[in-house]
Design brief:
Strand order of the largest sheet: 1-2-3-4-5-6-7-8
Helix content: under 10%
Length: 195
Amino acid sequence: MIRQIKLCLTVLALMLASAPALSQDAGWFVGLGAGYMKTDDTCPVTAAPGTNCEDEDTVWKLFGGYQFNPYLGVEFALVDLNDRPVTVTGLGSANAKFRIFELTLLGTVPITQRASAYAKAGLFHWDVDFELAAGASGYADANGNDYTYGLGVKYHFSRNAALRLEWQRYNDVGDPGTTGKFNADVFGIGALISF
């Protein structure tokens, strides 16, 4: 994992060093994405013995950023990891609602005139609301920060419209005492416009 982060940062540094000061491919962009999430995680300490808290779910992402040149950009995103069901001993089922705010650097390598590959690395802030099922009383929330990285490809249909496919890893999301802690692999598709 540390190796992958070092590799992403090295690629970003090399692209930054070789990039021109500014090009016609610079500018703002916004987009919307959807995807599939698979987690490997530890259940909350309050979960019943034998409970499986691993999860698969859909993910939504709203993102935007600025492309400094064809090789380097920055991206902000709000990610909704949806609800994760867990079982709490003596209280029944519960829902944990996960939201992520992220800031990443994008390093892009053009493949053809319309297609490019990219790597991203950065930080994210997670926020979790933990709600017990109807009829049970109780509520908890937790938040924290960690790192994220990913890889993707982007295809431009026109100068201002593109589609991208990506994989992204979020590390150590959640609180061991309330929601459980997990790593999430997200496989997604996104549409973006630039201006």
